[in-house]
Design goal:
Blueprint lengths: L21 H8 L24 H13 L18 H10 L11 H17 L9 E5 L2 H22 L8 E5 L4 H9 L3 E5 L21 E7 L11 H15 L5 E4 L7 H4 L12 E7 L11 E5 L11 E5 L2 E5 L9 H38 L3 E3 L8 E6 L9 H10 L6 E3 L8 E6 L6 H19 L17
Parallel strand pairs: 2-3, 2-4, 4-5, 5-6
Antiparallel strand pairs: 1-7, 6-7, 8-9, 10-11, 11-13, 12-13
Helix pairs in contact: 3-9, 4-9, 9-11, 10-11
This protein binds pyridoxal-5'-phosphate.
Cofactor: pyridoxal 5'-phosphate
Family: Belongs to the group II decarboxylase family.
Protein name: Glutamate decarboxylase
């Protein structure tokens, strides 16, 4: 009965010797999920009236979590789902650390600084000592901070010139991740979306002059578009902005959203000019919990120099009796992930990161190649930017099924591979995407290819079309 479960149960509190009552002896010994509380209901949306045994509460939560999908087969997420046993040990040892308590946990604070300085060097900051950065809870917060710095810099320049500051806008691809829509919404910035088209499948600098003006606080370039995994050509976008500056005088900075690519490109495409080597890039963000290989939630954002982060956005927190700058949306947040990032930097080094990312890319390129061989599919890209690729149904292949049906069939085998429509101006195209992460081995990938081939054979052999009622993408970017 709701709410009555444990007030009426006969369980013995954990600190009462089990031998003292016969009933609880049975409770503690019985391994068959027959303990009071396990055999009855807990209230779902109301705090239970009283305590329960830790074993009972643990089992209930553990069992409910078991109903989630298998994270290793989740090829929809970019977020890390595995760390090694040393990392797990470090995680449980440091789960109590609050990142904001820099005075109480000065070593964690120092390690945070070491990490973003390492990242600033990875991203070729001209002088890592003059750069400034911070950890965040993920890329969304990192992007918000990058966007806020752009907005404040623009406001300061406008005020200094005696011009109004009431109509800031941000130029970005229609294929941006939702965090940028949130940024524009929450901080009253007009988003100017450049639609993707068949000719321009990502933001590539063409037509930028139609979107930017004196109220543009910046342009967002994505290293690893969420929908498909392709890199936006940062250097080309910067060159377009250089031309605009020559003709109009407008000096518009770029924030690179490297949520995924920020931790891939330095290792797999070291010669690609996308980072602080491009002078117009003011700031870069990434998710440590994606290809940084750390459990959720950790992100990083780095500004080229301290001058790119307006000082009036930065607060002082006490640190070893002195002060430490803090620029964050949250106050308290976990410090353990920062230690995990440092552990991985020490554990893997440059070569180790290269090997892990290359292994993921090899699997992505193999999978893309096998899917390209199937007549049912047209590849959108081949996994050679970040280890992510998407495909669409070959025009005219079938009128009996679509990629949502394929996604459902693959789910029967445990694979989570979403299908979804592309953004403006390609909303009539539905694609399906695979994100290859550390842990999707070549042999698992071979099983997946077989499962896709079997599912396609089943769907192709249907005599009547699959029903389409209620068939929409439940997937959000
Ligand atoms: C390009 C891009 N930016 C930002 C984000 C948001 O990242 P996070 O989940 O770390 O907040 C994502 C997430 O997929 C992304 O792909």
């Amino acid at each position: 009965m709701w709410g009555m479960t444990n007030s009426s149960d006969t369980s013995t509190p954990a600190d009462v010797p089990a031998a003292s009552t016969g009933v609880s002896d049975r409770n503690q010994l019985n391994p068959l999920f027959a303990r009071s509380g396990e055999a009855t209901d807990f209230p779902l949306n109301r705090l239970p009236g009283s305590e329960s045994l830790p074993e009972t509460a643990y089992q209930i939560v553990h069992d409910e979590a078991m109903l989630d999908g298998n994270s290793r087969l989740n090829l929809a997420t970019f977020v890390g789902t595995w760390m090694d046993p040393h990392a797990d040990r470090l995680y449980s040892e440091s789960a109590d650390k609050n990142m904001i308590d820099k005075d109480e946990y000065p070593q964690t604070a120092a390690i945070e600084t070491r990490c973003w300085k390492m990242i600033a060097s990875l991203w070729n900051a001209p002088d890592a000592e003059r750069a400034i950065g911070t950890s965040t809870i993920g890329s969304s917060e990192a992007c918000m901070l990058g966007g806020l710095a752009l907005k404040r810099r623009w406001q300061q320049a406008r005020r200094a010139a005696g011009k109004p500051t009431d109509k800031p806008n941000l130029v970005l691809s229609s294929a941006v991740q939702v965090c940028w829509e949130k940024f524009c919404n929450y901080w009253d910035v007009e988003p100017r979306f450049v639609p993707i088209t068949d000719e321009h499948r990502c933001l590539d600098g063409s037509d930028l002059d139609k979107y930017v003006d004196e109220n543009t606080i910046g342009v967002v370039a994505i290293m690893g578009v969420t929908y498909t995994g392709v890199y936006e050509p940062v250097a080309k976008i910067a060159a377009a902005l250089d031309r605009i500056q020559e003709s109009t005088g407008l000096d518009i900075p770029i924030h690179v959203d490297g949520a995924s690519g920020g931790m891939i490109a330095p290792f797999l495409q070291p010669d690609l000019s996308w980072d602080f080597r491009v002078p117009r890039v003011a700031s870069i963000s990434t998710s440590a919990h994606k290809y940084g290989l750390v459990y959720p939630g950790l992100g990083w954002v780095v500004w080229r120099t301290v001058d790119d982060l307006p000082s009036d956005l930065v607060f002082d927190v006490t640190y070893l009796g002195g002060h430490m700058p803090s620029f964050a949306l949250n106050f308290s947040r976990p410090g353990a992930q920062v230690l995990l990032q440092y552990y991985l930097f020490l554990r893997l080094g440059f070569d180790g990161y290269y090997r892990v990312q290359k292994a993921s890319q090899d699997v992505a390129v193999y999978l893309a190649g096998e899917i390209a061989k199937m007549p049912a599919f047209d590849l959108w890209n081949d996994g050679t930017d970040i280890p992510v690729f998407a495909w669409q149904l070959t025009k005219g292949h079938t009128d009996k099924w679509n990629l949502y049906h394929l996604s459902e069939r693959l789910r029967l085998k445990g694979w989570l591979i979403p299908a979804y429509p592309m953004p403006d101006d390609l909303t009539d195209i539905v694609v399906q995407r695979i994100v290859v992460r550390n842990g999707l081995s070549r042999s698992l990938a071979e099983s997946l290819v077989q499962d896709i081939a079997d599912a396609v054979a089943y769907l192709d052999a249907l005599e009547a079309p699959m029903p389409t009622e209620g068939l929409t993408s439940g997937f959000t970017h």
